[in-house]
Every structure is written in structure tokens, then in C-alpha cells.
Design a protein that fits this description.
13 strands; Glycosyltransferase_grp1; single chain; Glyco_trans_4-like_N; Rossmann fold; binds ligand GMT; 2 domains; seven-stranded parallel sheet
Length: about 375
């Protein structure tokens, strides 16, 4: 099949999922055309089935705002016609689903549209009256719509009420990349002692990720046991988090690692992952940790409980309940047998429910049904 993929190419879960999907589809023999504003950052591999089409935006001085959405739709239509695409799979409702519909109308070659909702395109932008109708329109005009969790479907129905069936297709993980490896030397080189437990948090440090709660929980953990906190990522809250860490006097125990490419190595030296967000449609970072055998404690928010199974692969606790989250975390960090059972259960759950081949197969079924009417 010839598949066009549009996503936000910069760092972010939706771009990661879209790019990894494209790479796997190419491996399975499909011809994949990325149509994006720049080269997707995870597109780090040359493959004869992968093509990249950059959207160029006209900066003519009359425009108060450069017309990116029109340029994207134009590029989509150009690629549909020239490459004879069977379908466009767009990730993130705005503007991508609307641009895809516009491109379909412009193109002379017939094409189907699949839209995947990732979260903030609904849970944040769906509240914005300047975008709400456009999001609904994009969803309703798509030939098939998927969401990354059941919780996101519910939220979409509550907020937007589109006249469209949406199906859950979970995010996935490539276990050739995400698996637990031996990283004793790396751990040593970070100055982490053998008896120290390592807690990890990975995010874009936006307010919704509640990194402050992560630090508060860790503050209590390190009062009880020797521990190090790895904070991976960067974003708007980082400066205030640095300040919080200094004020609490735990700066020697918290490592701000910034953005990192090979997080699987960092997960491999971790004993616990904290994902304490107030909005999270899925929580791809939890899945990455689980694939590397790291039990997770997460909040009872959005799709997180669909990923972390309470009491089996970690714990689900109420948003903002620092005491309960600390208790749950310590119960894993101080009980090696429990930690090992949860680590194994995490790896197993990823293999059974979120394996790349299983999920890519679900997307292919949707594609084939639309294109061949199967
Ligand atoms: O989490 C973010 O802030 C980035 C955001 C994005 O749009 O890339 O991630 C969303 O999509 C990911 C991939 O499907 C999900 O794993 C994240 O849970 C989701 N983020 C939120 O819902 C806040």
C-alpha cells in the first residue's frame, strides 16, 4: 500500500508514534511518504520504502501569518496525485485532519483518510472555541478515526460529540529497542552507588506533567532509603523545578539530564518510574519504562490506568496524593521480590498488549478495510 503520514515532526509522543509506525510499515513492505514541516526527529534510518516531502511555507510579506495549513494541504494533494497514495494517516486532529480533507478534495487521485487522536488535540484544544468546530469537522470528515485509549474516546465524545465512531488503537513499543540491558558501568559513571534505588521521570516539563509532585514524592522517598532521581527532558517548568529541588536541599540526589535520545539505557538502570500527570491520554513513557522492566506508579488520569495495571505492573494512585504515591513507591523500592515480580509482569504486559507487530497489524486492518473494502 502507498501511505502518506503527517505528524508533528519535533519531539513529542504523537510524532514518535507516527514515525515509528511509518518505519515499521516500511519494513513490512508498504511505501511510506512522510509529509511534514521538517524531517521527523525519529526518522533516523534510511529505508528504500521511506520518502520525505517537506512542506514549504510561503513567507510573502502581505501575509500577517504564514499559511502553513494551506501549504500542508497543497503538499498532501501534490503527493497524493504524483505518488498515487492509497491513504493519508494523520496524527493529531488539528490542523492535520482538516488539511487532509482539503487535500482529498483538491486531489484528482482517490484517497482515504485515517486520523489518530493523541490527547492534547482533544483534552486541551477541544476546549478552545477557536478550534472546536474545526476539530469536530476534521474527525467527521475522516474515513476512520482512532484514539490511543478508551479514556480519550470518552473525553472526545463528552467534549466534541462527533458523529463518528472512534476506535481505540493503543500505542506500541518496538522491543528490539526497548529492553532491559546491563548498564552497571553506566550507573557507576553517573556516580550512583550500588545500594541506591533509582527513580526516573521523563517528560516535556509542562505543567500538566506535575513534575513538582514527582520531586515532592522523591523528597519523601530519599528520607527513607538511599535514592537518586533522574529527571529527563526539558520544558517550561524546568527552572521552577530546579528551584524546588534546591529549596528542599536534595540537589545532590537529583540529576537533571535534559533531553536524551537513548532513554532505554536510563530506564535499564532505574527501579521505579513516576508518571503523575493531571492529563495523559496514554503515557507512552510508561510503556517505554515497562518494556525495560521498570514498574511504574501513575495517577488515575486519562489512559494511564489502561497502561499500568494497579497492583500488577505498578500502582495507580489519586492525582496529587503525595502521601499515597510515596507509600506505593516505597512498597516497591523496599521489597525486592515485589519489584522483580512487577518488573517481569511489566515486560510481559508490553509483549502481550502493546507489541509493535500487534498494533501495526491493527492499523493495517483499518487501512485494508478502507482501501479494499475488506
Ligand atoms: O505528552 C505530551 O505532552 C505530548 C503529547 C503529544 O501530542 O505528542 O503526547 C500525547 O500523545 C502521546 C502519544 O500518543 C501520549 O502517549 C501522551 O499521553 C499524550 N499526552 C497527553 O495526553 C498529555
Amino acid at each position: 500500500m502507498k501511505i502518506g503520514i503527517t505528524c508533528y515532526p519535533t519531539v513529542g509522543g504523537s510524532g514518535v508514534v507516527a514515525t515509528e509506525l511509518g518505519k515499521l510499515l516500511a519494513e513490512k513492505g508498504h511505501e511510506v511518504h512522510f509529509i511534514t514541516s521538517s524531517l521527523p526527529f525519529r526518522l533516523n534510518k534510511v529505508h528504500p520504502n521511506i520518502y520525505f516531502h517537506q512542506v514549504e511555507v510561503n513567507q510573502y510579506s502581505v501575509f500577517q501569518y504564514a499559511p502553513y495549513d494551506i501549504a500542508l494541504a497543497n503538499k498532501m494533494a501534490e503527493v497524493i496525485n504524483r505518488e498515487k497514495l492509497d491513504l493519508l494517516h494523520v496524527h493529531y486532529a488539528v490542523p492535520h485532519a482538516v488539511c487532509a480533507f482539503l487535500a482529498k478534495e483538491m486531489a484528482s487521485h482517490p484517497v482515504k483518510i485515517v486520523t489518530t487522536l493523541h490527547g492534547t488535540d482533544i483534552t486541551v484544544l477541544g476546549y478552545d472555541p477557536s478550534l472546536k468546530e474545526a476539530i469536530k469537522f476534521g474527525i467527521e470528515k475522516s474515513d476512520a478515526v482512532t484514539a490511543v485509549s478508551d479514556a480519550l474516546i470518552l473525553q472526545t465524545e463528552e467534549l466534541i460529540s462527533p458523529r463518528k465512531t472512534i476506535q481505540t488503537v493503543y500505542n506500541f513499543i518496538d522491543d528490539r529497542v526497548y529492553y532491559r540491558r546491563s548498564v552497571e558501568e553506566l550507573k557507576k559513571s553517573y556516580g550512583i552507588k550500588e545500594d541506591e534505588k533509582v527513580v526516573i521521570h521523563v517528560s516535556n516539563f509542562r505543567a500538566v506533567k506535575r513534575v513538582k509532585d514527582v520531586v515532592d514524592v522523591f523528597h519523601r522517598i530519599q528520607d527513607e532509603i538511599p535514592a537518586t532521581l533522574l529527571l529527563v527532558g526539558d520544558g517550561p517548568e524546568k527552572s521552577s523545578i530546579c528551584q524546588q529541588v534546591r529549596t528542599l536541599g536534595i540537589d545532590k540526589k537529583v540529576k537533571f539530564l535534559g533531553k536524551q535520545d537513548n532513554v532505554e539505557e536510563l530506564y535499564s538502570m532505574s527501579d521505579l518510574k513516576l508518571l503523575l500527570s493531571e492529563k495523559e491520554s496514554f503515557g507512552l513513557v510508561a510503556l517505554e519504562a515497562m518494556a525495560c522492566g521498570v514498574p511504574c506508579v501513575g495517577t488515575n488520569v486519562g489512559g494511564i490506568p489502561e497502561v499500568i495495571v494497579d497492583g500488577e505492573t505498578g500502582y495507580i494512585r489519586p492525582l496529587g496524593n503525595i502521601e499515597e504515591i510515596t507509600k506505593a513507591s516505597l512498597s516497591i523500592l523496599t521489597d525486592d521480590e515485589k519489584a522483580s515480580i512487577m518488573s517481569e509482569a511489566s515486560i510481559q504486559r508490553v509483549k502481550e498488549e502493546f507489541h509493535a507487530l500487534k498494533i501495526v497489524g491493527q492499523y493495517e486492518d483499518i487501512y485494508f478495510e478502507l482501501v479494499n473494502g475488506e
